[in-house]
């Protein structure tokens, strides 16, 4: 059978699986909290795999290799988001769960509005959640449409609508529990698909294996229409571009935006995934925080890291080698990639056997849906709880009404994401990074709630608002000033505004101070580390910044001429070396420093000290 036939066979099986969980949830979820946060009972293995899949998804599967093809190994530093995404989880995820358990929070807006005693904080969270869900889901849906077009010849618009329908059905029918259990199989397909495609590219007759591949990398031309292709593919171009618009500067100088500073601040953007409102809500829904440390250290940093640092680079760099060496396609034309989003689909159709094509295609679709599903679902839940239920229905709507309105609002998010995806011309990965920049701005709220950063309530809310405006300006008006990502500018400006308010002597009222002191006392007591944990935390305050500085910060430029092993170019060797050290660092941070571990005593106390302040339904 042809590859297209296998694509439809595997897609059919996948749709049946998704619809099963959607229909199961439709007939079993009868309460608003059961639908919205899975009754706070998402089990260990489900969260472990589904949360990992949701962190990476379609733009990792399709967009990531495409930008490696376009910008080389300088962009491949983005693979370090296997560490920078979960490191956000180590800062906040466990404490999110503890707060949700004690106070009964359903949405992050509940938590921020309570702590800052500000409904403005709730509305900013709603706006952030909507923008994040819209932009990030748009990335996923368009990635699926592009893939479907290349593999099966389906028109882009129809493919986007069809793929959106699949994810919309099981999310709206079954709620968070359904999307979580679908996410379990999606994780397996995601990682397996990346590895399979990378393996078939590197072992293809056109590449000739690892030795031939590394030799061809060294033979890349130094002048292609005025571009030193060898340097572009194998080096970080510089420290920082001294321009208000780094994109214009890079284009004028025929280089990339991926300077050392851009790499670092882009990683800040990716840290916004697990600080986004969607992930905070998901933290409220897990049965126990026990899987957090394993998800952050093993599933994300090690398993997905292995796939990205090797196999996505095989795809992206392999595509560049094939194009530079004039590889001839089956139809007699010479291989040429017009856009980054076309790289992975073309590689799949040209280099995978029929059955494998079906499997890898399904892996890509599963990867795409694994993120679109929770963001569409949580986006609808946040709009339902924080807008419709609280303000329109004045907290009087029953369970059935809430569930159905949740479905309506999730449909609104889906339609908005489709519209953005079909009208935007930005690269998939870049559009996704714009979405995550909004998530990173939420650090301002979270740092106050969980770690007691001292700025007044009005400072925090104005800071988040200023941060969101700055993200828009440094993405749409000025493209990454000084080659710093809009996520950096957003959070930097937000923190400056927050602390200016403090410096002006603005004080919170008595009720706000009382709430914040109570939260501080609760978290500082229940999450106090052991004596060993205190020592590890002190050490990690030094280790983590040092790792950031050398692995993905200004010092990453040293990798241009660093050591080389096993045939890997120096910059690639540098990335693998710091990834391995990063695994050790994450293990120390999550387990030894106790940033993501929870004892049975802590869990028993959280259960006993429950003091619900938010009405469940």
Approximate helicity band = over 70%
Tell how many strands the DSSP assignment holds. 0
Instruction: Name the CATH architecture.
Output: Up-down Bundle
What amount of the residues lies in strands?
Answer: under 5%
Shape by Cα distribution? globular
CATH topology: Sodium/glucose cotransporter
Summarize model confidence as the mean pLDDT. 87
Protein model, in words:
There is one protein chain. With 617 residues, this protein is an all-alpha fold. It has one domain (3-236, 265-449, 515-608): Sodium/glucose cotransporter, CATH 1.20.1730. Helices cover 74% and strands 0% of the residues. It is built from 24 helices and no strands. The chain has helices spanning 3-28, 32-37, 44-71, 81-103, 108-116, 119-152, 156-202, 210-218, 229-234, 246-252, 260-271, 277-285, 291-324, 343-351, 354-392, 399-423, 428-441, 443-451, 457-477, 486-503, 510-526, 531-551, 570-592, 600-608. α4 packs across α12. The longest helix is centred in the N-terminal third of the chain and has 47 residues, at 156-202. The termini are far apart.
Descriptive labels:
617 residues, mainly alpha, Sodium/glucose cotransporter
Q: What's the quick description here?
A:
Helices cover about 75% and strands about 0% of the residues. The chain has 24 helices and no strands.
List the helices and strands and how they pair.
Layout: H1 3-28, H2 32-37, H3 44-71, H4 81-103, H5 108-116, H6 119-152, H7 156-202, H8 210-218, H9 229-234, H10 246-252, H11 260-271, H12 277-285, H13 291-324, H14 343-351, H15 354-392, H16 399-423, H17 428-441, H18 443-451, H19 457-477, H20 486-503, H21 510-526, H22 531-551, H23 570-592, H24 600-608
Helix pairs in contact: 1-7, 1-15, 3-6, 3-7, 3-13, 3-15, 4-11, 4-12, 4-13, 5-6, 6-7, 6-14, 6-15, 6-16, 6-17, 6-19, 7-13, 7-15, 7-16, 11-17, 12-15, 13-23, 15-16, 17-19, 17-20, 19-20, 22-23
């Amino acid at each position: 059978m042809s590859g297209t036939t296998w694509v439809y066979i595997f897609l059919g099986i996948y749709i049946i699986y998704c619809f099963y969980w959607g229909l199961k949830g439709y007939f079993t979820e009868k309460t608003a909290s059961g639908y919205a946060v899975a009754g706070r009972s998402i089990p260990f293995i489900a969260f472990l795999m589904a949360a990992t899949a949701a962190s990476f998804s379609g733009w990792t599967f399709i967009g990531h290799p495409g930008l490696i093809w376009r910008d080389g190994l300088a962009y491949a530093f983005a693979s370090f988001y296997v560490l920078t995404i979960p490191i956000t989880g180590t800062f906040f995820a466990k404490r999110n769960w503890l707060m949700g358990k004690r106070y009964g929070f359903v949405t992050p807006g509940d938590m921020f509005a309570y702590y800052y005693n500000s409904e403005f904080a709730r509305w900013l969270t709603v706006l952030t959640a909507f923008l994040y869900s819209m932009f990030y889901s748009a990335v996923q849906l368009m990635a699926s449409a592009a893939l479907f077009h290349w593999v099966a010849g389906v028109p882009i618009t129809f493919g986007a609508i069809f793929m959106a329908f699949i994810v919309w059905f099981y999310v709206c029918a079954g709620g968070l529990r359904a999307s979580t259990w679908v996410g379990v199989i999606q994780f397996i397909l995601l990682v397996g698909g990346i590895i399979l495609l990378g393996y078939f590219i590197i072992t293809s007759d056109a590449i000739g294996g690892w030795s031939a591949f590394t030799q061809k990398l060294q033979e890349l031309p130094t002048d292609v229409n005025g571009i030193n292709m060898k340097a572009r593919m194998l080096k970080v171009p510089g420290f920082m571009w001294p321009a208000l618009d780094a994109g214009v500067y890079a284009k004028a100088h025929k280089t990339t935006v991926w300077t050392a500073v851009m790499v670092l601040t882009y990683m800040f953007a990716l840290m916004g995934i697990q600080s986004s409102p969607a992930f905070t809500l998901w933290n409220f829904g897990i049965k126990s925080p026990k899987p957090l440390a394993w998800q952050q250290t093993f599933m994300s940093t090690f398993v997905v890291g292995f796939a990205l640092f090797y196999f996505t680079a095989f795809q992206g760099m392999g595509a560049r080698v094939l194009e530079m060496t004039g590889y001839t396609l089956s139809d007699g034309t010479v291989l040429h990639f017009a856009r980054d989003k076309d790289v992975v689909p073309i590689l799949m159709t040209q280099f995978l056997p029929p059955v494998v094509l079906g499997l890898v295609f399904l892996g890509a679709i599963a990867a795409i849906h694994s993120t679109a599903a929770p963001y569409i679902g949580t986006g609808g839940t946040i709009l339902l709880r924080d807008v419709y239920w609280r303000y329109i229905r004045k907290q009087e709507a029953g369970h059935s009404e809430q569930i159905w309105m949740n479905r309506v609002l999730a449909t609104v998010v889906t339609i908005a994401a489709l519209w953005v995806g079909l009208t935007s011309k930005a690269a998939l990965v870049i559009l996704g990074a714009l979405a995550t920049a909004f998530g990173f701005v939420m650090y301002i709220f979270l740092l106050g709630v969980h770690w007691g950063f001292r700025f007044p309530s009005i400072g925090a809310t104005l800071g988040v608002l200023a941060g969101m405006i700055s993200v828009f300006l440094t993405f749409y008006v000025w493209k990454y000033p000084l080659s710093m990502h809009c996520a950096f500018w957003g959070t930097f400006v937000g923190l400056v505004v927050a602390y200016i308010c403090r410096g002006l002597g603005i004080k919170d009222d008595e009720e706000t101070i009382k709430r914040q002191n109570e939260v501080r006392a609760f978290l500082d007591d229940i999450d106090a580390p052991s004596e060993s944990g205190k020592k590890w935390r002190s050490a990690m305050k030094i280790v983590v910044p040092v790792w950031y500085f050398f692995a993905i910060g200004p010092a990453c430029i040293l990798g241009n001429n660093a050591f080389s092993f096993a045939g890997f170019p120096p910059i690639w060797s540098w990335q693998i070396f710091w990834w391995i050290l990063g695994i050790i660092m994450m293990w120390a941070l999550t387990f030894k420093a106790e940033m993501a571990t929870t004892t049975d005593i802590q869990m028993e106390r959280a259960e006993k000290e429950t003091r619900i302040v938010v009405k469940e339904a």
